[in-house]
Every structure is written in structure tokens, then in C-alpha cells.
Amino acid sequence: MSENEKDLLKLLVSGDKTVIQDLYIHQFPKIRSFILSNSGTVSDAEDIFQKALLQLIARYKVKAFVIEGSFSGYFYAVCRNLWRRELNKQKRIVTNDELIERNKEAEDMTMASLEQEKWELFQEKLAELSDNCKQLLQMFFKKIPYKEIVEKLGYNNDNVVRQRIFNCKSQLTKLIKKDTRFNQIKEL
Amino acid sequence: MKDYPIEIDDYLSGNMSISEQQAFEERLRTDTELAKEFKLQKEMLAIYGDEEWVEEDTDILNTDKAKQLKTFFLGDESANLKATIQEVVVENHASSSYKRYWFIGIAASIAVLLTVSLFVFKDNNYDDLYASYIHLDEIPSLVTRGEDNHTLLEKAQLLFEAQKYNEAVQSFSEYHQKETSIDPLSYIYNGISYIELGKFDNALKQFELLKKSNTLQAKKADWYKALVFLKQKNKVALKTVLNTITANSSNYKYQEAKELLDAID
Q1: What ipTM describes this predicted complex?
Q2: B226 close to B241: Cβ distance less than 8 angstroms
Q3: d(CA B130, CA B230)
């Protein structure tokens, strides 16, 4: 991440309107087109844009953090996840009680923030694995059959692949469990 | 290297016989350590497989971090920030939609030309229009694969699909009476059933309930109301609703509403 982008997060947290305007110009179009092509409307996109900014600021206020990689990619991932979460909620049944709306909204934003942190933790840990493990696991998680992996990566047989994937997944599990953040989010 | 029991993978990938599955599920109920490992492996599948978003248990709201976050979201600072972001969104929205209207204006006049020529050859009949706009395939299913579904809803949807609208309406009504929290899509299905039965007032009531449901489906209510009026051949009411929809280009079915307005005039 460049120096400019580092300042970006800090400036954003200060609530500077010109920074928000700038983010709108540069980031919003991508978010809008993602949401429009995933059964949302422009106003849904605006809602997600707002929620994502608030989430970043809240998380930074509670505990300052640094964004690895580009701000743009990071922000897009946050928005994309918030929208996937929204679509999930939509499938569920809904009740209508506006009285406790404000409290509920704050709780929902809190849940979204913590879920996003967990998602980020999982992505970080996957990135720490060897290239070979990453490649195998990415195929595994995409549900590509073992037979196809054998052919594509030139292994001897299914069993070798199965064993190798189990080893990689074990390493990944270990990395996740070892991280203090995981235990913090996990439970009380 | 072994950091979780390999049986979990066998279970999750379906590589177990029925009796092995049952034995494993029994162990999950009694062995809390295994249950924890199982939950983590399932989450990994969902997160890395880019499947459904993994929601946490609301218990985590009791953690210190959650409390700090919640305090921030409820505070003045957050309210001010929200207002600032809102300002930016509104200012930009106004300027960009102006440009968009201009573009849509051109697109719409082309669409008008197309639809006009279409209707010269075709009888400009409201029933035909209804049939070409209803698009039942666009309504998401009430029944989700692989989840515990509500049996009454499942029954109602099957009746709907079999075009047994009288019975479908009964099942939906029973569901609406019995349940305290309601799947908003059921209003759409029930409303269309009423349209098919010619009970337009009842249909409108369903879409009114949909509109008030405070869900993401609510924005579809106006469009379905328009379809009721279309089927009812109530031109005045139809035009009013269509005008509401076309007032904002981000409304659900904006483009279709515009076409329909042109077609009925």
C-alpha cells in the first residue's frame, strides 16, 4: 500500500468530507455495478457504500489497523461481503418492529464488522501457505474433483492428492486456530 | 501435521456410508470438541468456497470488542459520519442521475419506436401485455435447496406451480395466519394467485403487505400492483402506479414501466 493510501484510511477516520467525496468518485462505480448485477438497485449500492465506510471507521477506532494491498481492492471486498450478507438475510424471514430499530441496526453493523474481520483473517491465513498448498486448496474449495486435480497438476493418483490436501488443510486449520484474533471472535 | 479429525472431511464430502454418517452425527451431538472442529471446517468450506456468507452467532455481541463497536455505532460521532456520507451520496446522485436521464431519454425514444411498430401488428390487448410482463420465472423460489423448509409454504408453492390457485390461496392464507414472521415472497405468490382468480382487491392487499414488509422485496410492490391494474384493465390506476415507478430510474422495473406506459397510450 502506498503512503497516500495509508493516509487515506487515517483521513477517512477523521470524517473529512472531501475524502469521502473522493472515495465516492473512485470506488462507488465498481460497487454499483457489482450490486446491480447481483439483484440489487442503485439505492442498495448507496446503502452498502455507506455501511462499508462506517464499518471501516468503527473498526479503526476500536483498534487501528493497516490495509495490506490496495485500498480499492480491500474496500471492494468489504462491500461485496456486506452485499452477500444482505442477500443472505433477505432469504430469511423478517419481522417488523421499528421501535428497537436503532439498537438493532447498531448490533447488525457490529455483527457485520466482526464477520468481516473473521473473513479477512481466513484470507490472510490462506495467503501464508506455500504456493503449492494454495493452488491445491483453491481447487479443492472450488469443488474440483480429485480426478481433475490429478490430471491438471500431474499427481500420480487420487490418494496422493487427497492426502496432500488434508495436510494443507491441516496447516491452514492450525494457522487459523493459533491466531489470537480467531479466539477473540470465536467465543467468550 | 494432523490438526483436525479426517473423518470430518469424509463426512462433508459425502464419502461415508449411511451407518457411518449416523455414527458420526451421534458423535457430533456428544463430543463438543469434535463439534467445534466440525464447525470450523464447515466455515472454511463456506468462506473459501465463496459460498453463503458465514454469519456469526449473536452470542459474540457479548465480547468486549463487540461492545466497543456497538457503542461507536450508537454514538454521535457515527451519526455525524453517516450524515456526511449521506450528503456526499445525495449530491453525487443528483448530478449523475441527471446525466443518466439524458441518456435514457435517447434509449427510451428508440424503445418507443420499437414498441410502437410492434403493436401496430399485434392487438393492443391488456391480457397480452399482462402475459408478456408477468415473468413468473423471475420470482425467487420459496423453497431453498438443502434447507429446512416450511412445509406449508412448500405445499402452497407446489399448488401455485400446478396453477391450482384456489387451493394455493388457501394455503398461503393459512401460512399468513399461523406464522408471526413471514417470508415476503409469499405475498407475491399469493397476490398473483388472486390475480389469476380475478380477485383484484385481494391481490392488491397482498402487494400492500409486501410494500410494508420492510424487506428488500418491498421495492417490487409497485410493479406488481401495476400488473394487477393491467389485468383489471384499469387504465387510470395503472398509469398512476407506472408514473410512480418511472419517477426514479433506480426503481424496480423502471424500464419496463416506461415501455408499458408507452404501450397503453
Answers
A1: 0.84
A2: yes
A3: 6
Is A54's CB within 8 Å of B82's CB? Answer: yes
Closest CA to B55 of B67, B69, B39, B71: B39
Cα–Cα–Cα angle for B67, B72, B76, nearest 5°?
145
Nearest to A144 by CA among B48, B129, B39: B48
Interface of A with B in 134-173 (CB under 8 A): 137-138, 141-143, 166-167, 169-173
User: Cell digits for B135?
Assistant: 415473468
Domain boundaries, chain A: 1-99
Under 8 Å between Cβ of B190 and B172:
yes
Question: Scanning every residue of chain B, which has its alpha carbon at the shortest distance from the alpha carbon of A186?
Answer: B60
Whole-model pTM over 0.90: no
Q: The cell 406449508 sits on which residue?
A: B152
Nearest chain B residue to A32 by CA distance is B250
CA–CA distance, B213 with B215 (Å, rounded to integer): 5
- Whether A18 has its CB under 8 Å from any CB of chain B: the answer is no
Out of B48, B58, B62, whose CB is closest to A137?
Answer: B48
Assign domain A1-99 one CATH number from 3.30.540.10, 3.30.499.10, 1.10.10.10, 1.10.1740.10.
1.10.1740.10
pLDDT tens digits along B244-254: 999 888 888 98
**Is there a contact between A106 and B70 (Cβ–Cβ < 8 Å)?**
yes
Question: Which band of pLDDT confidence, cut at 50, 70 and 90, is reported for residue B1?
Answer: very low
